[in-house]
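**Entry details**
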Amino acid sequence: MGPIRSLEKRLKAWESPQLRRFRRQTGVEKVSRGTPQLVVPPDLVDYVSATLSVTSRHAPLLEQAVLCDFITEGHFSRHLRRMREVYAERLSTLL
């Protein structure tokens, strides 16, 4: 059994009994792309998988812009300095 099949088997164990029963009765498939999971009819699995593949290729531009500002404005350096002080104090208290 390959790693993908093993993962699929473990994920199926996490399904609720209601979803498992619904899938057995209707023949629908679960499509997962990262966090969101969709339950779709078997004839739409390929179409939905392809659509999710295309729509999730783009970089998170807003998050990258915010992170860029956070770093260039010096917030990240201040955060690191503060955390080093906090952890140095905790370490000295522990020892």
Helices lie at 3-13, 17-26, 45-55, 61-72, 75-94. The two ends are 49 Å apart (CA to CA). The chain has a mean pLDDT of 76. The first strand starts at residue 29 and ends at 32.
